[in-house]
Amino acid sequence: MNDNNSSLKSFDNFDSEITKIKEKLEDVTEKKLDSVKSEIKKNPTNDAKSLVQEKHDEEIANSKADRDLRERYGFKAYKVVKKSLWGWAILLTLYALCRFFFNKDLFSDNVLIAITSATTLNIFAAFLGVIRGLFPVNTKS
After folding, report:
1. Are 120 and 84 in contact (CB under 8 A)?
2. Is 137 left (phi over 0), alpha (psi -120 to 50) or beta?
3. How far does CA 69 lie from the centroid of its chain?
4. What are the tens digits of pLDDT across the range 48-99?
5. How far apart are CA 38 and CA 41, in angstroms?
6. Which of 24, 53, 73, 107 could form a disulfide with 111 if both were Cys (CB 3.0 to 4.6 A apart)?
7. DSSP-assigned letter for residue 92
8. CA dist., res. 65 & res. 58, Å (int)
């Protein structure tokens, strides 16, 4: 029975400690809340100005990021087109060399026309798709 009494006393002591801590926390939060309220009362437009400034800074950061992305992906699109044209030029050169030196056709004329047409259309389509994605037309109604 003596063990139970000591347990109850320690529990009551623990409960009283928790109550003291809660009271101290409430006092601290009330003081902080009061200081924040007084600061807002002193400078009521400061928050609105800072929100406008934050929005403006965010728009500037977005514009810079857009420019960086456009530059990066525009250069990549240019490299794809450049490499495609070089590949097509090498293919035509090989075809011409084989025909001139060995008098042998690598491809028939119809295949060469199809390769040239397909390469040209694919380059234009890819480049146009990338450019439209990088520089969208803003239409506001």
Report:
1. no
2. beta
3. 9
4. 667 777 888 888 888 888 888 888 887 888 888 888 889 888 988 988 898 8
5. 5
6. 107
7. H
8. 10
